[in-house]
Amino acid sequence: WCGMRSQHKLDSLKNTVVLWSAVQRFQPDVVHSFSRILYLLPLLGSSLPKIMSYQRNPSHRTTSWGTKLAKGSLIFTGCSNYICGLGRNARGIWHPIHNCVEIDKYTFQATVAADTPLVFLSRLERIKGAHTAIAVAQQTGRRLLIAGNRVKSAEGEAYWQQEIAPHLGKNGIEYVGTVDDQQKNELLGKAAAMIAPIEWEEPFGIVFAEALACGTPVISCPRGALPEIVRQGIDGFLVNSISEAKEAVHQLSKINRSNCRQRAEQKFSAAVIVNQYEYLYIKLV
Fold first, then answer.
1. What does CATH list as the number for 103-268?
2. d(C-alpha 169, C-alpha 53), whole Å
3. Taking the model in full, what pTM does it have?
């Protein structure tokens, strides 16, 4: 895209022209956009099949007018059934296709030591639940490694200072900073569980699928797309309270880590997701 500010009117116009020009040159059978539906505006009235994919909550207003203008030539995908459910409340035909994990980047760890720490890996803001992970670790006597980006805002700094920093260096609670892909693989693979008791409706949450690819069970909450990722008692636990999270930690030894890896391979691998998109393309043409 030549315009990098998605909410800027001039940049939006530039990007709309770029997409329209590309379609004129390449004459594709299907146009598939992960960007803004606005960029499809000059194409909506044509019979050319179009797919608009959403990785976050869709706008009811824009999906509704897009569907109306496209007259049957536009369908939508969401990164989860949860997102598709929100979209269907507006209008249009929706297909859930999850985000994918590059399975080969993650090393399966069939077993871990009994004293292996829990791991929290996400942005350090309240909705991701690091403070709850700390409470669970403290109350179960487990070590906890915290990784992720601190949020650069007044609210984010207040959260860090009040909820995270006071606990670091005590009772096995450590902050290891941000991690690259290699470090993430190592961190998740050597975890007893990936624990992130979220406080929002997660659209998908790729880190949960990445943990499963390492064979690491997930402890989170049944919100948003989490019930689509984690099977209760098979490859993790979805909990509604600290007491339930504590019990989940005590039950981790009952999880077969092979089930976690198989879940990632069968549900979220690149090959599986590509096949789902290709099937959708074939249906449209």
1. 3.40.50.2000
2. 43
3. 0.93
